Amino acid sequence: MSEQRITYTIKNGIADVRMVRTDKMNALDNAMIDALIDTAAELENHPEVRVVVLSGEGRAFCAGLDTSNFKRTAEGNGGSATVKHGGGLADRTHGIANRAQQIVWGWRNLHAPVIAAVHGIAFGGGFQLTLGADIRFMHPETKLSIMEAKWGLIPDMGGTPVMRAIASEDILRELSYTARIFSGEQAKEYGFATHVSESPYDDAMVLAREIAERSPSSVKRSKKMFNALFDATDAEALLTESVLQDEIIGKPNQVEAVKAGMEKRVGNFSDTSD
Predict the structure, then answer these.
(1) For the packed helices 252-263 and 216-227, what is the interaxial angle rounded to 10 degrees?
(2) Dihedral through CA 42, CA 31, CA 28, CA 203, nearest 10?
(3) For the chain, which residues make up each domain, given as ranges?
(4) Residue 70: its pLDDT value, please?
(5) Amino acid 82: pLDDT
(6) DSSP one-letter string for the chain
(7) Mean pLDDT computed over 35-62
(8) What would the pLDDT profile of 1-39 be if each residue is shown by its tens digit?
(9) Contact residues for 109 (Cβ-Cβ < 8 A; gap 6+)
(10) What CATH code is assigned to 214-263?
(11) Is residue 159 predicted with pLDDT exceeding 70?
(12) 243 Cβ partners below 8 Å, 6+ apart?
């Protein structure tokens, strides 16, 4: 990669992940797409990561797909920054997802919860990237848009399964048909923002520290349980609860959680104990 697109540090169980293509408002070019996919994959191999804070440096969280890609389309040169393997978008290259969708699903399926700190702009693929997070802090003046209709496209970068679970169908249809820009305040009203904050990064880090103090075995299973709820029947959801609870109940981290709670102290948990 000729230019760095993402940096991250891991400290006290928190992975602080930042998009750093500040001159382009962290727009999604090939290198940024690769960096988002690769970083999520790298963090999956770090059991000491208990929670992730994902943010963008500079003026924006992520401005969406790099407009140079659309310029090539307008000039008749075709090409897509979201396809790299020579096939079509329907080809599954990352499990159930294609390459573009993996920028959302890589974070969605990460073992640790992901908190997005969103400010400035989150358009198109940048908006969908926020949906890869478990929790979203947004500045009230953030400008967001399901912008694909502006370019004659539909939202296709992995966010639609999450959208359907957190926003009403009529809102999704309106925003997708019009590409209307809406604010962080409206995002909270629609269901896209968990919290509206004047300091989204700072508040995301406060919550991250709180999560990092909990048993990683418990938090990991909770995320896995909620991810499985999307298409689950009631019977499947109830069974999932039981199976995941069996994996941790009575194990060292669960016992330590009980002791820490009773002794009113921070737990001393193992990141490698399931």
Answers:
(1) 110
(2) 40
(3) 6-211, 214-263
(4) 55
(5) 57
(6) --S--EEEEEETTEEEEEE--GGGTT-B-HHHHHHHHHHHHHHHT-TT--EEEEEE-TT-SB--B-THHHHHHHTT----TT--SSS-TTS--BTTB-TTTHHHHHHHTSSS-EEEEE-SEEETHHHHHHTTSSEEEE-TT-EEE-GGGGGT----SS-HHHHHHHS-HHHHHHHHHH---EEHHHHHHHTS-SEE-SSHHHHHHHHHHHHHTS-HHHHHHHHHHHHTTTT--HHHHHHHHHHHHHHHTTSHHHHHHHHHHHHTS-----SS--
(7) 97
(8) 458 999 999 999 999 999 999 999 999 999 999 999 999
(9) 227
(10) 1.10.12
(11) yes
(12) none
Domain 6-211 is found in CATH 3.90.226.10: yes
The structure's pTM equals 0.90
How would you label 170-189 residue by residue, b for 16+ Cβ within 10 Å and e otherwise? Answer: ebbeebbeebeebbbebbbe
**Distance, CA of 232 to CA of 261 (rounded, Å):** 32
Q: How many CB atoms lie within 10 A of CB 3?
A: 11
CA distance 111 to 233: 23
CB 112 within 8 A of CB 219: yes
Residue 186 clears pLDDT 50, i.e. is over it? yes
